[in-house]
Amino acid sequence: MRILITGASGFVGTALCRDLLARGHTVRAAVRRLIPSDAVPPQLHQVLIPDIAAEFDRRALVDGVGAVVHLAAIAHRSNRIEADLRRVNCEAAVRLAEAAAGIVPRFVFLSSVKVHGEDSGHRIYREDDALHPEDAYGRSKLEAERALSETASRTGMELVTIRSPLVYGPGVRANFLRLLGWIDSGLPLPLASVRNRRSLIYVGNLVDAIARCVEHPAARGPFLVSDEETVSTPELVSRIARALERPARLLPAPPALLRAIGVLTGRLDEIRRLIGNLAVDTAKARRVLDWRPPRALDEGLAETARWFGSAHR
Known about the structure:
This protein is of the alpha/beta class. Helices cover 43% and strands 14% of the residues. The protein has eleven helices and eleven strands. The protein has helices spanning 11-22, 58-62, 82-100, 136-155, 174-185, 203-215, 233-244, 255-265, 268-275, 283-289, 297-312; strands at 2-6, 26-31, 45-48, 67-70, 106-110, 124-125, 158-163, 166-168, 200-202, 221-224, 279-280. The strands form three sheets. A seven-stranded parallel sheet has the order 3-2-1-4-5-7-10, with helices on both faces. A two-stranded parallel sheet has the order 6-11. β8, α5 and β9 (200-202) form a beta-alpha-beta unit. The termini are far apart.
């Protein structure tokens, strides 16, 4: 099958290009910047599109493909205004789907678990839960999900939505990369008193889930995906430290104090992600797609640690 991937030069996109090519698919990669030739197989067809939300011939981009995987988005950043997020994360996705309708049978959209919001309790999220995003990024993804669903209903195009938690793996950036750096430095982290449960997903597992959503005939609607295990933040720190061959330096501190520090330093969102709960139920993906994450958490952390050691030490 010929597959269009947008956002193909990103963290997930590059890994997905390699995986789909290895499965025997032909890949047309819409990239914001060209992927270096040593990072992907030479048969990858790259199309340079610096701004996915700008004016360009979307019909030509989707012509001749059997599925679209839309990854291109602005990730969660506190310095981006909501209008920017809506323009790229929602409006660009809808315009691409409208161009693909009637040409491409299936549209796979990478959304986010953040459409569910953050839960201070211990509830496990499921696809049919009420959706209450709490930040601009989550709202832009939910708006896109709803608009894409309307387009699919009107045009008959098959829509698959994947709601992913935090993604980690070789090449990871942002908060997870900072966490790796903190643990590797030996700095003590005041997280020993945190009692939470969080889901996350290794990039190889996410790529496998996306490929299953492209290929499986029954793939429709939203799917929550994650690694097999959920972990507390102290447990995650300990397992990352083991993978990095560093000691886990964890100090006790009341979560209420950590929240107060977050307010005072302007880092409340980061603190909430470290101490809050965000666990998902992947039963629908297991039942409908017969999908299981192929890599265990410790395997994914070991791969991430090897990359970090070679790239950042």
